[in-house]
Amino acid sequence: MYEKLMARLDEGGARYRVIDHAPEGRTDEVSALRGHEPACAAKCLVVMVKLGKKTSRYYLAVVPGDARVDLAALKALAGGTYVSFASTDRAEALAGSASGTILPFSFHPDLTLVADPALLDHPELYFNAARLDRSLALNSEDYARLAEPRLAPITLA
Question: How far is CA 99 from CA 20, 25, 28, 80, 150, in A?
């Protein structure tokens, strides 16, 4: 996944910096290692939304690192009947990397990317680059252009 991400960023002319640090996947701790406020981090969570009894869809919810995902807002956005965080196994399979290293990009056709607009309030967003010991500081405009997330308010107030 790291190579796939870097190829997309380089092909798209993204402005980014690579930050090596001690292995860490928790937002508050890794934000301190990278030297920024948690609000500048892109926290990535995989959420399952049921659309009736037999159909489920998966969403990659990306929110500022100091925020919580509003599951009810995601359920409403998807027109679902039930919502929960995906199991770790399913989340990692769809995202292509381990929990704590999930990218704010979707490379899987069954994983719909939704990002809270507050992510773009900062000039750069920070995230683990599909590994616990390396992060990226990515220009926010380049993120929006290359990831093409659906922007919707999905954080709890």
Answer: 18, 8, 15, 25, 22
List the one residue out of 113, 136, 114 whose CA is nearest residue 125.
Answer: 136
* Strands 42-50 vs 56-64: parallel, antiparallel or unpaired: antiparallel
pLDDT of residue 157: 67
Residue 47 phi, psi dihedral angles, 5° rounding:
-120, 140
> In this predicted structure, what is the pLDDT of residue 52?
87
- CA dist 106 and 102 (Å) reads 9
Rounded to an integer, what distance in angstroms lies between the CA atom of residue 31 and that of residue 39? 9
Report residue 30 as tokens. 């890794």
Q: What are phi and psi for residue 102, nearest 5 degrees?
A: -65, 130
Q: Could you say which architecture CATH assigns to the domain 2-151?
A: Alpha-Beta Complex (3.90)
The answer to whether residues 142 and 149 touch, using CB atoms and an 8 Å cutoff, is no
pLDDT in tens, 34-72: 999 999 999 999 999 999 889 999 999 999 999 999 999
Mean of the per-residue pLDDT values of the chain: 96
Sign of the C-alpha dihedral computed for residues 114, 117, 118 and 119 taken in this order:
positive
Instruction: Kindly state the DSSP code that residue 68 receives in the 8-state scheme.
Output: -
Q: What are phi and psi of 113, to 5 degrees?
A: -90, 125
